Amino acid sequence: MRIAVPNKGRLHEPTIDLLERAGLHLENGADRKLYADTVDPDVSVLFARAADIPEYVADGAADLGITGYDQVREARADTVSELLDLEFGRCRLVLAAPEDGDIETVDDLAGATVATEFPNITRDFFAETGVSPDIVEVSGATELTPHVEMADAIVDITSTGTTLKMNRLAVVDEVLSSSVRLFGREDVLEEPKVREVRTALSSVIQAEGKRYLMMNVPEDRLEAVRDVIPGMGGPTVMDVANGGGKVAVHAVVDERDVFETITEVKKAGASDILVTEIERLVE
Predict the structure, then answer these.
(1) Where are the domains of the chain?
(2) Would you place residue 28 in the very low, low, confident or very high pLDDT band (cuts 50, 70, 90)?
(3) Tens-digit pLDDT profile for residues 273-283
(4) Which of 43, 46, 231, 240 is 20–30 Å from 257 (CA)?
(5) Could you tell me which CATH number the domain at 2-89+180-206 has?
(6) Distance between CA 81 and CA 74 in Å, rounded?
(7) What is the dihedral of CA 39, 41, 43, 47, to 10 degrees?
(8) Taking the domain 210-277, which CATH number applies?
(9) CA-CA distance, 251 to 227, in Å (whole number)?
(10) Can you spell out the DSSP letters for the chain?
């Protein structure tokens, strides 16, 4: 099975890091190579432009692909299905216009010109609104086009909005919300290896922001400790060899709850509290 991943850019390193943490360690995958094996002899990685990955998957050059949702929508890859939101690379495609101009709503763009690197997404957006501007495809520096009279507005990617502000552009409407996702061709979705890869990647995502708590608790204080532990279901309780009336309590909690949880379980009688990171979590 072959997984297509971004070969460069802002999505490359996070994608490779995710594969590594999921146990799919890359082998012989030096820079400038098109392919790399993984420790799983049945899984290899294909490096490609993020925008080309949906087509690689749809055409059968790869079985799975990791790229932005915006790229899949732009490619109109109808035979490609989403398997998992990988929860990084978040961004928005927005409709923006000069902040000191006359365009304040989508309706103001009737008969106007809109520049974008995403013509298909932009056409779909305006088709839903019933407004029909002239859409001009550009290959870069989209935010400059209104200032050189190439366009009245743009549809472009933004993460923080800083670039738009620097170029005196204001958001008129949101066109699409995107993040990096795992996609697969429809004819391979039920294959065991595809399910294994999805589970492996999902286990890393599930572990994000979680911590594993271990502590010793007097048996007569167990219910009090249980009552103050948040998290996934109830804690695991185990006997302690020569515990002297104590049991071991293990629990998974959100990282943001760790400080308060430690304080509360100590008040309830817990001791010897240990907090560790979780690399993977299969639910």
Answers:
(1) 2-89+180-206, 91-178, 210-277
(2) confident
(3) 999 999 999 87
(4) 240
(5) 3.40.190.10
(6) 14
(7) 70
(8) 3.30.70.120
(9) 12
(10) -EEEEESSSTTHHHHHHHHHHTT--EES--TT-SEEEESSTT-EEEEE-TTTHHHHHHHTS-SEEEEEHHHHHHHT-TTEEEEEE---S-EEEEEEEETTSS--SGGGGTT-EEEES-HHHHHHHHHHHT--PEEEE-SS-GGGGGGGTS-SEEEEEESSSHHHHHTTEEEEEEEEEE-EEEEEEGGGTTSHHHHHHHHHHHHHHHHTTEEEEEEEEEGGGHHHHHHH--SSSSPEEEE-TT-SSEEEEEEEEEGGGHHHHHHHHHHHT-EEEEEEE-S----
Q: Residue 110 carries which side chain, given as an amino acid letter?
A: A
Count of residues making up the chain: 283
φ, ψ at 185 (rounded to 5°)? -70, 140
* Assigned token pair, 39: 């420790």
Q: Which residue has the higher pLDDT, 127 or 161?
A: 127
Which residue's entry shows tokens 């309590």? Answer: 249
CATH no. of 91-178: 3.40.190.10
How far is the C-alpha of 159 from the C-alpha of 242, rounded, in Å? 56
* Neighbour count for residue 216 (Cβ, 10 Å): 17
Which tokens in the block code for residue 259? 């400080």
Q: Do domains 2-89+180-206 and 91-178 have the same CATH topology?
A: yes
User: Is 252 in contact with 211 (CB distance < 8 Å)?
Assistant: yes
**Which has the closest alpha carbon to 54: 82, 34, 32, 29?**
82
Taking only the tens place, the pLDDT of each residue in 176-228 is: 999 999 999 999 999 999 999 999 999 999 999 999 999 999 999 999 999 99
